[in-house]
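2024-03-11 09:14:02 DEBUG pipeline.ingest accepted 1 chain
2024-03-11 09:14:02 DEBUG pipeline.ingest length=157
2024-03-11 09:14:03 DEBUG pipeline.predict start
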Amino acid sequence: MRLVIQRSGPARVTASRDREGRAIEHEARIERGLVVLACAERGDDAATFRWAARKVAQMRIFEDDEGRMNRSVVDAGGGVLVVSQFTLAGEASKGNRPSFTGAAPPEEAEPLVEILASALEREHGLTVGRGVFGGAMRVELVNEGPVTIILERRPAR
């Protein structure tokens, strides 16, 4: 599992096509909070994504009254945009074309990304917007700080 977590001001994700290529109109937005780009990798499981939800919700990357990063998105009253992004599994150390063989297949990855989004809502009380899994999306955000954290957890072998 690999997440890119960005502290953000206004952010939105729009989608113009779904996974099957059909035209759609989808938009989700937050005024302040976190944009989470989420990649499920081969061997990941539900427990990994529930763990990730807890880490995202509790990560202290928002400033307190003294300007220290001491508050979580929950403490700050922010929302979260969760956007699936299999390209985070890209391996580009050889050649010029990244390999995405490390990404979980869509039928495995989609429910795992949904576990992350649902756990943020149900277990942590956050407002969560979602992208469209496998869709043609555009993500717009104002990265505050900038603060960008990479969170990874490798499957137990």
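2024-03-11 09:14:41 DEBUG pipeline.report The mean pLDDT is 96.
2024-03-11 09:14:41 DEBUG pipeline.predict end
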